[in-house]
Amino acid sequence: MLHSLYNTSLSLLTDLYQLTMAYGYWKSGTAQKETVFNLYFRKHPFQGGFTVACGLSSAIEYLNAFSFSSDDVRYLSTLTGTDGQPLFDPAFLDYLQTLRFTGDIDAVPEGTVVFPNEPLIRVRGPILQCQLLETPLLTLINFQSLIATKAARMRLAAHDDTLLEFGLRRAQGIDGGMTASRAAYIGGCDATSNVLAGKLYGIPVRGTHAHSWVMSFDSELESFNVYADVLPNNVTLLVDTYDTIQGVRNAVEAGKKLRERGYQLSAIRLDSGDLAYLSMEARKLLDEAGFRETAIVGSNDLDEYLVTSLKEQGAKINIWGIGTKLVTAYDQPALGGVYKLAAIQNPAGQWDYKLKLSEQTIKISTPGIQQVRRYYNERGFISDMIYNEETPPAGPSTMIDPYDFTRQRRFADATTFEDLLVPVFRNGQTVYTTPDIQTVRNRVTTQLSQLHPGIKRFTNPHAYPVGLEQNLHQLRTDLILKLRQK
Amino acid sequence: MLHSLYNTSLSLLTDLYQLTMAYGYWKSGTAQKETVFNLYFRKHPFQGGFTVACGLSSAIEYLNAFSFSSDDVRYLSTLTGTDGQPLFDPAFLDYLQTLRFTGDIDAVPEGTVVFPNEPLIRVRGPILQCQLLETPLLTLINFQSLIATKAARMRLAAHDDTLLEFGLRRAQGIDGGMTASRAAYIGGCDATSNVLAGKLYGIPVRGTHAHSWVMSFDSELESFNVYADVLPNNVTLLVDTYDTIQGVRNAVEAGKKLRERGYQLSAIRLDSGDLAYLSMEARKLLDEAGFRETAIVGSNDLDEYLVTSLKEQGAKINIWGIGTKLVTAYDQPALGGVYKLAAIQNPAGQWDYKLKLSEQTIKISTPGIQQVRRYYNERGFISDMIYNEETPPAGPSTMIDPYDFTRQRRFADATTFEDLLVPVFRNGQTVYTTPDIQTVRNRVTTQLSQLHPGIKRFTNPHAYPVGLEQNLHQLRTDLILKLRQK
């Protein structure tokens, strides 16, 4: 995915402070210290109850290509400090050129439904390497998870209707559009208008004509007839260039001619006005003329809330076109994923656990070599427990809410469980086979089907229970108290 | 800019309907009809009073590289319609492979302040080509103009303080981040944390260390001392990992040692908590210890409103770090730019003017071969008049508000004027020299200095007057009436 798009080394796609810190570690002799960092988020986007993890396949590609070119290093050698002297020692730049990722990565597969504080990616390795990866991993995972989640919400709103993504023109740059098309498909869209995404990612593409097609002819009917003549096996007619109801009548006329030729009028599209009213009127006109199989496409700044509302109003739309609101995640255009140091190995080979304090309780991080255990019963997921792999849960463990220690839970009702993070890299080598996009998309569907409807609703969703395993909770509490006493 | 990033043909970076329409034009023998399309937006982003045009240099690169590869065409040959038959005739695909842009483009230079309904880009050429360019031009111009505008607003809020952009981790994909860094610099940021943007676009880069640096040492003071030791000419110390005020005291200690070595503590950084209170306390501690030259960097989900508020509260911050809210244009993550057909040449070589009707007055387009004339007096811009180049204003013309024809204006008070759109392509060849990024950035500064402060304010800004030249207004009115009578 990345490789097919970019022709430049992306190792400088990081914040400068990652490089100055790397230099600091190198120069102070601590570059090789073994560390563990966790990538996680603190709050679901869109005030929702779930998030879809996405972007791992890009991260794998990034890591496999991770190396500084001579050109990268030449650029770094030009950077200077406040005194006009070079920032970096040339020996460090030589070292950078030999640097490869040599660590371990465990991650939640793409398409998994995840919750706040759960590591989506866990990176273990020399601190210098782990630090450099912070920015690119966040860039790749934050955005893709955000869009996959938005698409999954649209899918829930649309039920079994067809969902088309056509946001490219409003996307945030070329790759903003490409990445959005891929994540939107994974999250639940059926097709995209983005032809390059179709070609590179194997996503179905859809599209017929715009207002300009109609305007380029002397009459709307003529434009419909010519279109149906030329592309008889792909006829969706956009009916709102001038007067929508008249547009539907013209579409019916063109549809009749098309039928005489042995083809079908696939759909009409409404792109403005009162979509509830117009779709009901259009449905009547189509049905009366015998076009019961002709679908109605609705579009115009739609999101999950508008789709829900239109359905409630009885709109006769079977295909939803969604663009801007999806590809920019309009109502919350960023997922606040973070990447936090959780442990450092001391010279004796033991882990020193690490935690970032904050006056805001939600911003205090969690230490440990974290894994997530998901418990199931016969109806689906019942709760997730974050534990430290150094102190795994023994038998029926208790989990504790990190923000309210009086909320505790044992798993008497669980029939089975699964650990969510799977090995992806070992000693810098990929040990994971990236599933194809269809498999990832199916995973989203399956995962969502295991979630209680209350967690999936848009308004005040029920909070899925996630807690810390009791030993990890104790470790975290001890560390907080120790740091606060300093 | 594009070339340096991508290694794939981007000609399929378009909506499928552009290709199906292109096929329709080709097959119906109208592909060569000479047309004019205008790219414009209808409303300023962020409820603001101005927009900064950005993205033209990317558009030029895109156009210069525009051609369908054999690989692109092979992919298109696999697309099928409802009957399972290929969508496109192989002869059309052969034709696509020979296609190059042969038309004319006029555009507003990057960094120009622009207003609703003004064409930012005007494309003239065979309808098939113009149509294919709609999506990529919108993708490139919409996002870059949005971010440059957001950055310009941040610049207005920050006055003469330093503005650092460090949004990469929350950006919308890799190129979302790269493009945002460039547009943010053009709009008024002084530097970016994005090292790849520094390398590829020549933007100054800045950055020192993160919380993880502090956490990787046994004590905060030790971490500061090591950092100052290793990078003495780039010392900004992040003081809020544990307790912010103690962090400032530790920074002062580290700063004293640094001073003994002949270096200066450049800055401290506050990334959480009450930035107003903490910056004032930190300033006192720094000043008392003789660090009057040490700057204070403030960051934490800042935008133009928070910066304004913090300044009003007397915050002692001289360097503002802005990330998420800037690179995603958080409060309005899309600019609604559109691309509308405005004229088609008839066989007699005359223009048939075109217009898209809508029930929403603001969505009715304007016909014509549009140019924008900006009038000045000695204080700056006074108003812009959109005119049809076929009926240029003769002498002192009258302009008319397209949404209220009783609002009219003559230019008795104008001392001079300038036409904003300049030739960029002629017969498919570039006739424009793209200015360097510094020149574009300076243009934004100069342009904004010519705008009345009332237009630049964030709350209920004054609307800068933009009207249609009287002949163009008449043409538009006649067309609307004619279409409504149909």
Automatic annotation (TrEMBL), chains A, B:
Q: Residue ranges of the Nicotinate phosphoribosyltransferase N-terminal domain?
A: 12-142
For this UniProt entry, the molecular function terms from Gene Ontology, in alphabetical order, are: glycosyltransferase activity; nicotinate phosphoribosyltransferase activity
Name the InterPro entries for this protein: Aldolase_TIM, N/Namide_PRibTrfase, NAPRTase_C, NAPRTase_N, Nic_PRibTrfase-Fam, Nic_PRibTrfase_pncB, Nicotinate_pribotase-like_C
What are the residue boundaries of the Nicotinate phosphoribosyltransferase C-terminal domain, all occurrences included?
371-476
Q: How is it modified after translation?
A: Transiently phosphorylated on a His residue during the reaction cycle. Phosphorylation strongly increases the affinity for substrates and increases the rate of nicotinate D-ribonucleotide production. Dephosphorylation regenerates the low-affinity form of the enzyme, leading to product release.
Family of the protein in this entry: Belongs to the NAPRTase family.
**Protein name (Swiss-Prot/TrEMBL):** Nicotinate phosphoribosyltransferase
